[in-house]
């Protein structure tokens, strides 16, 4: 029996009221409302967290690892996303947050921004290769990569085959820690401090890697309150080796693009905006671009659903902080030897997801497609969501899959009732005559 796919985004059934708010906002149409309650389709969900943002009843939640999980290892290393820095208003130096993480129980800290510096250098080296597809698409946001797998499979070859910054950071952190302390790799746990559920999912279900180098993901929201008092009184750690300002800026929209390919790139944030641009890429309308950075969250990772601070305030905090950091580019800070020393490239191909296949048997799938199109012709085309499906087209698909029937459409049912009422009137008149 095939194992059910892992998803961080879950439904809190007892809180769901069966409204259609999440239904209308899901970018991959992965939500249905049946029996007065929402259901998330595993095959279509990309863990972008949009349903978490829009649910007024907090019925959509993200499952992440508790801080106590660090005790499962003899040693623990925190991998703070650079978006964590944006949660503390007026923060002047990343060092304060790094030291605060040690204070709450981590044995060591390795900035994911440092991993972003290495990835920046690796991508810039990649861009020197001839014959690359245009535009090359960032692989940093796992929600966007899964979106491509589900809705834009023809663009998979455009996705850059470089690992995410958190994966590179975890590998470097564990290797250097073991070398310094003489311990075994299995004794060291690396935990990403995450702004979004998609990162949690990609740790459990890696994209482009056989196994993730990250052992768990802890929500920014969970540890923010623990870190705040330490950050407010923290002094600089003289032994800290900071990342560059470019690595820190990866936390905001256009930060990656400015570091990787400032001259001929495009940065887009918000999953709906990303979809519109990917449609243009798929239709060969952006062939003049060299690099495309897509962020599922508005503002970039600082806008993740598991963050504490307002995304605009967080973005401004990051912007003010990087202004004070030295002007050192990853090309200068990351030697080429480092790219050879640590793995930066994927070790597996990214495969498309057959989420929209109607049937395993091609002939049966074609028959269902014909029936689906016939049903669509009979539907009103309002895309109102009252049937429990996000659009009339997805409703027709759900019918041929056996999940519902045409009478679940209130407009068809209304017309049917009108016909039945008229028939009853005519029958009554016939009897009187």
Concise account of the structure shown:
By secondary structure, the protein is of the alpha/beta class. It has helices at 21-25, 50-54, 94-103, 112-126, 142-151, 165-181, 197-204, 220-233, 245-249, 255-260, 271-282, 311-323, 330-333, 336-341, 362-378, 392-400, 410-432; strands at residues 9-11, 31-34, 37-40, 60-62, 75-80, 108-109, 136-137, 188-194, 216-219, 265-269, 291-295.
Commentary on this structure:
There is one protein chain. With 433 residues, this protein is α/β, with parallel strands linked by helices. The chain folds into three domains: 1-62, Alpha-Beta Plaits (2-Layer Sandwich); 67-341, Rossmann fold; 363-433, Electron transport complex subunit B, putative Fe-S cluster (3-methyladenine DNA Glycosylase II, Chain A, domain 3), CATH 1.10.15. Helices cover 41% and strands 10% of the residues. The protein has 17 helices and eleven strands. The protein is elongated, with a radius of gyration of 25 Å. The model has no long low-confidence stretch (mean pLDDT 92).
